[in-house]
Structure formats: C-alpha cells, structure tokens
C-alpha cells in the first residue's frame, strides 16, 4: 500500500515550507515518510513540484485549488485503483503504531481526517470537494470510517513556536 505524505500546501500560517522545516534535525515530510515506511507502507510525497531534497519519491499534483483533497485525489488517481494511507507533512509526531491501527481498521483519525486510510474510487468526490472548498472533515464523513486514536498534533507554526492540535 502507498503511504502518501501531502506536501503541496501554501503554508501561509506556517510562514515557510513545512515539508523542509526540521524537527530534531529531520525535515518534517521526511520524518512522516519514514514513519509510513516503518509501518510497512511505500512512502511517496505528493507536492506541486519535485522534492529531491527529501529523498522520497515525489508524485506531482496538477495545478488546482490549494486544498488537501486536491493532493489526496491526485495520489488516489496515481495509485492505480488502490486505497492509500495519507498523512500531511506537518504531523511529525505521528507514530508507527497509530498508522498500523488506522490501516488495519481502514479508518481516518477522529482528531485529523488527513491521517488515515482513504478508499480507492473517491477521487471524483475529492476533486469536487476541493473545487467547492469543502472541509476535509465533511469529505471524510462521506466515504471514510472514523477511529479515535487520540490527539494528533499538526504544526501550523514552525517548531518551537506555538502550535495547535488539528481539528
């Protein structure tokens, strides 16, 4: 199964490229990719341009709305009819155990719908949602199962600056 690291956002609140922001000396996107790999997935980064500095295969998403559903739909289309496990690049605290639990349950995390298992065949729904600006939580309600795996913190500010749990 493909483990997708979403790294195509504008990072307006963050103020710099989230994928390259370092936590404990490692770029956040690489840290998330390593967790996905250690959980038995084949990690790829989905971004708007090549990311060779991350040392992970990059799949380019076409220009479109700045919406996580856009990158997720691109990943599902490229995965050849397979479901994907997805995580944004800004969750460096993601654990192998959390990935394994969500993967086994075929679910997304209650704390963050951008962490978890997304079914094949949901690309068209996600693209419509991206164009309409539909929140990810509403999109997940339509096609995913929820599972409470506890808090998942996403960093909306550089490490060392105040951050908030995802909602």
Q: What can you tell me about this protein's structure?
A:
This protein has 167 residues and is of the alpha/beta class. It is built from five helices and eleven strands. The strands form three sheets. The chain has a seven-stranded mixed beta sheet with strand order 5-4-1-6-8-7-9, with helices on both faces. Helix 2 runs antiparallel to helix 4. The longest helix has 11 residues, at 28-38. The protein is globular and about 40 Å long.
Strand arrangement within the widest β-sheet reads: 5-4-1-6-8-7-9
Rg calculated over all Cα atoms? 14 Å
How many strands, what sense, and barrel or not for the largest sheet?
7 strands, mixed
**What structural class should be given to the helix and strand makeup?**
alpha/beta
Task: Name the overall outline.
Answer: globular
Cα separation of the termini: 26 Å
Q: SSE order in H/E notation?
A: EEEHEEHEHEEHHEEE
Q: What are the segments in which pLDDT stays under 50 over at least 5 consecutive residues?
A: 161-167
Number of helices: 5
> Level of helix content?
25-40%
Query: What percent strand?
Result: 15-25%
State the oligomer. Answer: single chain
Total E-strand runs: 11
Average pLDDT over all residues: 84
């Amino acid at each position: 199964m493909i483990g997708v690291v979403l790294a195509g956002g504008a990072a307006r609140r963050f103020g710099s490229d989230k994928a390259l922001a370092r936590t404990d000396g490692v770029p956040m996107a690489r840290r998330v990719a390593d967790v996905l790999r250690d959980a038995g997935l084949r990690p790829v980064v989905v971004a708007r341009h090549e990311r060779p500095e991350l040392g992970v295969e990059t799949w380019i998403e076409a220009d479109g709305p700045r919406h996580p559903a856009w990158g997720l739909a691109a990943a599902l289309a490229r995965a050849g009819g397979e479901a994907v496990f997805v995580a944004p690049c800004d969750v460096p605290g993601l654990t192998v155990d959390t990935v394994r639990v969500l993967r086994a349950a075929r679910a997304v995390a209650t704390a963050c719908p951008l962490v978890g298992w997304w079914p094949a065949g949901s690309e068209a729904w996600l693209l419509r949602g991206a164009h309409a600006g539909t929140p990810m939580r509403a999109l997940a309600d339509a096609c995913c199962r929820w599972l409470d795996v506890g808090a998942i913190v996403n960093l909306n500010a550089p490490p060392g600056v105040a951050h908030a749990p995802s909602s």
